[in-house]
Specification:
mainly alpha, 77% helix
């Protein structure tokens, strides 16, 4: 029974980030809570990491197209980098090289989208993005504060986290 519950939670955790139109920091949140929460979040597949990278990139690019304030988009983008790094770590048993590779892939996809001239999406999506960016930034700030309080913060990423904490 317990194994089945853990399996279900792991599948839900893996799907939560990968399939949503407006992504939230699921794996980064789990990582900030410690090893058990990370295990419960599950191990995403390469395809889930790719889909999540795309979801974050499109949400951020659409946010800019909708006129969401740049600072909010940048903060949400930093949370996206946290999420993709944490997700890539979960996919590769926490390897530092893989974490960096995931963040590079995310930033590369994001830069590609941001340099394209894009029409604003539908008004309904723009309204959703106006609320999504600040909520996402706040969720990222909470995850960073929790990770620091739990002694899980890697000092090498201090600048990124300090930017988000503002």
């Amino acid at each position: 029974m317990r194994a089945a519950l853990i399996g279900i939670l792991a599948m839900l955790g893996a799907c939560a980030t990968a399939g949503g139109a407006l992504p939230m920091p699921r794996y980064a949140d789990a990582a900030s809570r410690g090893a058990l929460a990370s295990v419960l979040a599950g191990r995403p597949s390469e395809e889930q990491v790719r889909l999540t990278t795309d979801n974050w990139s499109y949400a951020l690019a659409d946010s800019l197209s909708c006129g969401v304030p740049m600072r909010q988009v940048l903060d949400a983008g930093l949370v996206g980098a946290l999420e993709i790094s944490a997700m890539n770590a979960a996919a590769h048993n926490g390897g530092e090289r893989e974490i960096r590779a995931g963040a590079r892939a995310y930033l590369s996809a994001l830069v590609g989208l941001l340099t394209q001239r894009r029409e604003a999406p539908a008004a309904q999506r723009c309204r959703a993005l106006e609320g999504w960016a600040p909520r996402t930034a706040e969720a990222g700030r909470e995850a960073v504060a929790r990770a620091r309080a739990n002694g899980l913060m890697d000092e090498e990423y201090g600048l990124l986290f300090d930017l988000l904490a503002r």
